[in-house]
Amino acid sequence: xxxxxxxxxxxxxxxxxxxxxxxxxxxxxxxxxxxxxxxxxxxxxxxxxxxxxxxxxxxxxxxxxx
Length: 66
Description:
Layout: H1 22-33, E1 38-41, E2 44-47, H2 57-65
Antiparallel strand pairs: 1-2
């Protein structure tokens, strides 16, 4: 999915209820951010990629919201 930078969700606007169970927090984060591989952080566009032997996206997101 190609989006203009202005159409990307700003991660600063994402708010996940930390009292939810882990799985629900992850679901809520993905629902709000829409594309966890590409989003904005203020005026910056963040594009996520991983090496073949690095952490998975799930591990990285879990580290942010857990």
